[in-house]
Amino acid sequence: MSTSRVDRPLGRGRGIPEATVARLPLYHRSLMGFADRGVATVSSEELAAAAGVNSAKLRKDLSHLGSYGTRGVGYDVDYLVYQVARELGLTQDWPVVIVGVGNLGHALANYGGFTSRGFRIAALVDSDPARTGELVNGLAVQSLGRLEEIIDEADVSIAVVATPASAAQEVCDRLVAAGVTSILNFAPVPLQVPSGVDVRKVDLASELQILAFHELRKQMSSLAALPQLAAHPARPGHPAHPALAPRSEATG
Amino acid sequence: MSTSRVDRPLGRGRGIPEATVARLPLYHRSLMGFADRGVATVSSEELAAAAGVNSAKLRKDLSHLGSYGTRGVGYDVDYLVYQVARELGLTQDWPVVIVGVGNLGHALANYGGFTSRGFRIAALVDSDPARTGELVNGLAVQSLGRLEEIIDEADVSIAVVATPASAAQEVCDRLVAAGVTSILNFAPVPLQVPSGVDVRKVDLASELQILAFHELRKQMSSLAALPQLAAHPARPGHPAHPALAPRSEATG
DNA sequence: AAGTGTGAATTGATTCACAGCC
DNA sequence: GGCTGTGAATCAATTCACACTT
């Protein structure tokens, strides 16, 4: 979710819905798979299956880019790969700075998926002097003090924040001040940014919690199937409740 | 996004919208922050600001859980923490298995955010015999062969897939067959699961690509501001395309 | 006076279903 | 005959605005 937005309509028939944008990388990846296997043409049905969406959605999504298919035939794989890649800005090479070289930063620096898809790690930066100079995936970790210099020299506009929560906002402020306008945030805090800067967050703990929410319902509903039902098990260790309990339902 | 869904309405006023569920962890975290700082009561405005959403949305979200606030006053922090935690299933301890102990699996195993929030890493599993026995965050990596045993013994229902793309579906099938019903997938492939199993995916490369998409528009629109404008870069009606980036499907 | 809770309005995303083209 | 592209219909999420409570 972009915390801050870019530009609203951006005019000329080119207003691609955010939900569609979020799926383009998926389509691109699936298309590359077909291309690697030498497939020349795919139908919306086939491509949709590979990407894990339904075909109506896929067709609607692609229709926002233009009419790149052939009725009765399908899509030319190479042509569509190119169009999607162009739309995503993958035809150019984006230098990315990763700030925070802890466990996660390490993993990201070593992650092949980034570098193989139009992104190049321009620098790794960490505040811990003990870490500067350390080689990670062939790149030396640099001091946080050099952040602005690095961004300027490498003309970086996309950064990854993989610092602890406590440092994230300050790092973010410096990134933005230095000219970064897109941030991928792994720190579990909502970053405040001025308008014109995009932030996307990856919140690992939240993802598990969302799964746990559904898991709980599944387990409750399978228990509810037993005759012995819905016992409200007295909650031990209540936090001190204020006055509550009144189901203040009703009204309208 | 749940690839497969659980149960639709689940009856009695308890059908919490998916978008709301996805924000509950955020609220929970923000509330914990207030609690830690000794704040007793928060308004929707304050809590919303801390969570990075607007207050109308927050109030609507909370209204799906029940009427836990006090008009004219706000929300009791401890009470609301408890209610949100209960809704999320955080009052219990969820054993989690991580499959794939590469860079990412390592990072996840060491990531404090999981263990500190109701999740316990029950086991680390990897297919590489060279890695079994290795200690990661105090836990010995186990052989993939033991997967079913582990899941059964520890009564695991939530698993994390951090394998290369090529292994993900097979691992997923085994997880599901062994009784896992919630999967957090880091591999860049859409997992096929039977209905009743939830999958959420974290797609690192896609996140960067989505940022790049918006970044490209920003850069184009700032160029468009120059007198020399909107050069329509001759769109040939035919597949005149460079085959793009060679490699694909990198691993984690 | 302050601030929640919620109907109503709006905006956005998905799905349907079929006309049009190959 | 097969399959895309897209209006229309549906469904979901967000925002508005205010009645109601303390």
Provide a concise account of the structure shown.
The structure is a homodimer of 252-residue chains. The first copy, chain A, is an alpha/beta fold and 252 residues long.
Q: Can you describe what's shown?
A:
Two copies of one chain form a homodimer. Chain A has 252 residues and is an alpha/beta fold. The first copy, chain A, has two domains: 18-88, Orthogonal Bundle (Arc Repressor Mutant, subunit A); 94-204, Rossmann fold (3-Layer(aba) Sandwich). In chain A, 40% of the residues lie in helices and 16% in strands. The first copy, chain A, is built from nine helices and ten strands. Chain A has helices at 18-36, 44-51, 55-63, 77-88, 103-110, 112-115, 147-154, 165-177, 204-224, and strands at residues 41-42, 69-70, 74-76, 94-99, 119-126, 135-136, 139-143, 158-161, 182-185, 198-201. The first copy, chain A, has a seven-stranded mixed sheet. Chain A has a three-stranded antiparallel sheet with strand order 1-3-2. In chain A, helix 8 links the parallel strand 8 and strand 9 (182-185). The first copy, chain A, is globular. Chain A starts with 17 loop residues before the first helix and ends in a 28-residue tail after the last helix. Mean pLDDT of chain A is 86; it is low at 1-13 and 229-252. At the A-B interface, helix 1, helix 4, helix 5, helix 6 and strand 9 of A face helix 1, helix 4, helix 5, strand 9 and helix 9 of B. Chain A binds a DNA duplex (22 and 22 nucleotides) through residues 17-20, 43-45, 54-57, 59-60, 62-63, 67, 69-75, 248, 251-252.
